[in-house]
Write a structure and sequence with these properties.
The protein is α+β, with helices and mostly antiparallel strands. It folds into 3 domains: 105 residues, no CATH class; 155 residues, no CATH class; 147 residues, no CATH class. The protein is 14% helix and 33% strand. It contains 3 helices and 31 strands. Strand 23 and strand 24 form a beta hairpin. Helix 1 packs antiparallel against helix 3. The longest helix has 33 residues. The chain is rod-shaped, with a radius of gyration of 35 Å.
């Protein structure tokens, strides 16, 4: 081995250990960074072959290369409903907002996401930015498949169909009522009548939401029309008018004028006061069309043969009046959450939820060979393999042997921290320092030997 080779080996050793020290310093600096993945520097012997003899020289130096440590970090609870950590394999798909808007650098793209330009991350500390996008602390926007809130799909599309998750405009989000339900107990002592009046009917109010998101209400009136020999009773149901948010009557039906009431249908109760006349377990529904800015509404009056949550006429029972409706009033938005099965759900007053986006789990075959963009964001390479999008699953289990799930799931209200082990990093730092010093000594020794050779006299 010549002195030139010794000198080259020393320089290669310094270069390799410099790279290792750079990785260690980055790891230590990011020990508290959410979703950070440590970089491991690995070393390989450089072999050179003599062309004439085809014999390899194992003493040709060392080379260094970095690989990701893909182990999960520590999970910590944050209490933020849009935060989530991944339990299992995979990544969130994220992207720069500027790129999505077609304004990043000199790009002329329209922001169409592809495997080669989206980024992957485990940093799930998402929160709403000033423009309404869900972004993490690195400024990366969460990507998902946009859904129809009234007909959410579980089907995942292609990467190109992903959209940035936006909560903008939800304070004005509203839905008109299309379904309502009523449960109450009608008085058994009510007299039989043939023509409805305020005195011989019992009323119940249904709250409704119109097409503009404003609140209103419809009055239903119930009149007993007959009592059979077996004790069963029949009742007629009337639409007794609707009022809007301004308190004014909608259409020609008025609660104060029974002559304008519109019949909706009839009810039959058995001698015990339970709905009868249909197959047990089937629903009894009637329709109303209030008019004005209100759409048609289907009113659920209960289940045949089931007194719970139904209209009944049971003696000496007062269950009060219980109503519900599926409309969402404008201005009733209360917040959003990232669910355990990967949906971004908006919550409105009354506990109503609407799924807005389906967030996929991005999986690659060889995550150690992802391109490291920042320590928290990564991009696919030929070696890592292409992105495969999968659905997050809901954890299941009885708690005795731990929760399990098919594939990965999300842990709500939490984030995954850095996977850097400080103790190991300082141990590796000492080793790298010693090896760097040894390589430096090798260079200085080779230099001294060279100087000695040059000063030899014949």
């Amino acid at each position: 081995m010549g002195m030139t080779t010794i000198l080259n080996n020393g320089v290669l050793g310094l270069t390799a250990q410099s790279r290792a020290l750079g990785s260690i310093s980055s790891n230590i600096a990011n020990a508290a960074t959410t979703g950070y993945k440590a970089t491991e520097t690995q070393f390989d012997d450089v072999w050179l072959k003599d062309r004439s003899s085809n014999v390899g020289d194992p003493g040709a130096g060392v080379r260094a290369y970095n690989r990701l440590d893909n182990r999960a970090g520590t999970i910590s609870q944050t209490g933020v409903t849009t935060n989530a950590s991944i339990l299992g394999n995979g990544y969130f798909v994220v992207q720069d907002i500027d790129f999505l808007n077609g304004t990043a650098g000199t790009t002329t793209a329209t922001g169409t996401p592809t495997d080669s330009n989206v980024e992957l991350t485990r940093a799930g500390d998402f929160s709403m930015d000033k423009d309404g996008y869900l972004v993490n602390t690195a400024g990366k926007a969460l990507m998902g498949f946009k859904l129809d809130p009234n007909n959410p799909s579980t089907t995942l599309g292609a990467t190109s169909s992903l959209k940035p998750v936006s909560l903008s405009g939800l304070t004005d989000y509203h839905e008109a009522t299309t379904q309502a339900s009523l449960a109450m107990n009608l008085p058994t002592a009510q007299a039989v009548a043939a023509t409805p009046t305020l005195a011989n009917t019992t009323g119940a109010t249904l709250n409704l939401i119109d097409k503009s998101g404003s609140a209103g209400s419809t009055m239903l009136r119930f009149m007993k029309t007959g009592v059979a020999e077996d004790g069963s009773t029949t009742w007629k149901v009337y639409n007794a008018g609707t009022v809007g948010a301004d308190g004014q009557a909608v259409g020609s039906v008025k609660a104060s004028d029974p002559a304008t009431w519109q019949p909706m249908g009839s009810l039959t109760f058995d001698r015990s006061g339970v709905l009868t006349g249909g197959a047990n377990g089937s629903k009894l529904s009637m329709g109303i069309n209030p008019g004005g800015n209100f759409g048609p509404v289907t009113v659920d009056l209960g289940t045949y043969g089931k007194p719970d949550d139904s209209v009944t006429s049971i003696a000496d029972m007062d269950i009060g009046t219980r109503t519900s409706q599926n409309g969402i009033a404008a201005g009733s938005y209360q917040g959003a959450e990232l669910t355990s099965d990967g949906y971004v759900a908006a919550t409105f007053a009354g506990g109503r939820q609407r799924y807005l986006y389906h967030v996929p789990d991005a999986i690659v075959a060889n995550p150690q060979d992802l391109e490291n963009l920042s320590g928290t964001s990564f991009r696919t390479t030929t070696e890592s393999g292409a992105i495969k999008l999968a659905a997050f699953g809901k954890p299941s289990g009885n708690g005795t042997s731990g929760n399990t799930t098919v594939g990965a799931s999300l842990n709500n209200n939490s984030v995954e921290g850095s996977n850097v082990n400080i103790e190991n990093q300082f141990t590796t730092l000492i080793q790298a320092q010693r090896t760097y010093s040894a390589a430096s000594k090798l260079v200085s020794t080779a230099d001294e030997m060279t100087q000695t050779t040059l000063t030899l006299k014949a």
